[in-house]
Amino acid sequence: MAGLKTIIALSFVLAIGFLLVILSSALYANYYPLLVVATYILAPLPNAVCARCSSPDDFIDGSGNGVLDFGRFLTGFFVVMGIALPALLAHSGIIVVPAMVMSIIGGLLIYGTIISFTMFFQEESDF
Predict the structure, then answer these.
(1) At what angle do helices 44-54 and 35-42 cross, to 10 degrees?
(2) Which of 21, 45, 54, 56 is deepest in the core (most CB within 10 A)?
(3) What DSSP assignment string belongs to 79-93?
């Protein structure tokens, strides 16, 4: 059971992640690293939607694995895109390397916080 300390710790880590991404944009006067925030916020959505759609009936467990795998694939795609996009922008010279590093670390903190939040506050159904 997660409590108030868990919520405070997760919000602190999330704030540090957003701070790093915003500073990677503001310090170098180039706002392309903010695209990382969109990819990490969109990353858990396909997994959640496909997990919900994979088994509409609670009594049948054998169907829907393809939908669940597709959701995991899209989630992995967004996570890799959140890492690869700043690297691509830095390689092409659009952003500088310190902005890339700050953006990747901040994005991973954001995504890690979202995953930790869903793990700590997941409802368990007993029947």
Answers:
(1) 20
(2) 21
(3) HHHHHHHHHHHHHTT
Amino acid at 86: P
Which tens digits make up the pLDDT trace of 33-61?
888 888 888 888 888 888 787 665 555 55
**Gap between the terminal Cα atoms of the chain:** 19
pLDDT single digits (tens) 50-92: 878 766 555 555 555 788 888 889 999 998 999 999 999 999 9
Distance CA 23, CA 36 (A): 13
Helix residue ranges, H only, the chain: 4-26, 35-42, 44-54, 65-91, 97-120
Residue 11's closest CA among 109, 82, 101?
109
Residue 118, Cβ neighbours under 10 Å: how many? 12
Of 84, 91, 107, 80, the residue nearest 25 (C-alpha): 107
Q: Where are the domains of the chain?
A: 13-54+63-118
